[in-house]
C-alpha cells in the first residue's frame, strides 16, 4: 500500500504535539482521522481544519477518553493509531479523576477499539520521560539515562508524582495489552517539549518556558530541562510507523540543559530583553548530574533541531500568537 493510500488516526489531535503530528502527516500525503473532545469547540478544531491538505484528507471525530467505544468510528479503516491524548497536569486536587483515569482507562479504551480493526498493525503511544526517570536507579553524576530505565509506580505514588504515575501506568498497560493481543506497539518518550505552537491555546510546556523567560520562574526545582523540539517529536512518531524495524521505546530529548543556559541563549537572541541580562555564560559552568541517550532516536532517523533554533522559534511563535511580548 502506497503512502498516499494510508489512513491513520491521531487521538487528542488538538494538542501541542498532536497538532504538529497532524500537520506533518497531511504534508506527507496521509489521510488523517483526528479525534477531539468536542467538535463544537472552535479552539479544538479551527487550527486543524486550516492546515494544508485538511480539506481533502482530514476527518474530525468526537471522542472521550473515559467513554468506552467512543474511538471506534475514528480508528475504523486505519493502518495505525497515534495515541497522544492524555492530560498534562502537574498540580491536581484529585489525581485519580484528573490524571490517572484519563491516562490509564483512556489508553485501554483506545487500544480496545484498535484491536477490533484488522487493518491496524501498529500503535504509536505518546508516553513521556516521566516513565523513565522515577525509578530505583539513582540519577548520579555521569550516568547516561536510556530506554532501559523504568519509573517505579510505587516510588511515583510515594513522592506524589501523579503525572509520572499516570504515564507509567498507561505505558505499562499498553505494553501488556499489545503483548496479549499480538499487535505492534512503539512508545515515544518525549522530554520537555518546546517549539512553535499551532493550537490557539497555551499548553503547559509553552506556558512554563514563557514564565521562565519572562519572570525567571523555574518549572523544575533543580533547574534542569530535558528539551526537545515539538517538530522532532511529531516526526519521530511518523518514523516509528514508517520504519518496520521500529520497536520498543524511543526517548526524545535533544538537549539536557540548566535554565541559565536557556537564558544565555535568549540573551544572545534578544539582547534588548531586560530580564535575560542577568544571565551570563559563567552561570552555565556547573556540570549536569546526568545525560540522556539520543542513540535510539537517531537510529530511528531523527535529526534533532539545534536548541538555539527551538528556543528562537518558540519565542517567535509565542509573540505571533500574542502570548508574550518583548
Overview in brief:
This protein has 326 residues and is an alpha/beta fold. It has helices at 16-27, 42-49, 54-57, 72-75, 95-115, 153-158, 162-181, 204-215, 230-242, 259-269, 295-300, 307-320; strands at 7-11, 31-36, 58-62, 80-83, 122-126, 143-145, 184-190, 192-194, 224-229, 248-252, 255-258, 290-292.
Keywords, please?
326 residues; 12 helices; alpha/beta; 7-stranded parallel beta sheet; 12 strands; 3-stranded mixed beta sheet; Rossmann fold
Structure description:
By secondary structure, this protein is an alpha/beta fold. It has a single domain (3-320), classed as NAD(P)-binding Rossmann-like Domain (Rossmann fold, 3-Layer(aba) Sandwich). Helices cover 40% and strands 17% of the residues. Helix 5 (95-115) links the parallel strand 4 and strand 5 (122-126). The radius of gyration is 19 Å and the shape is globular. The model has no long low-confidence stretch (mean pLDDT 92).
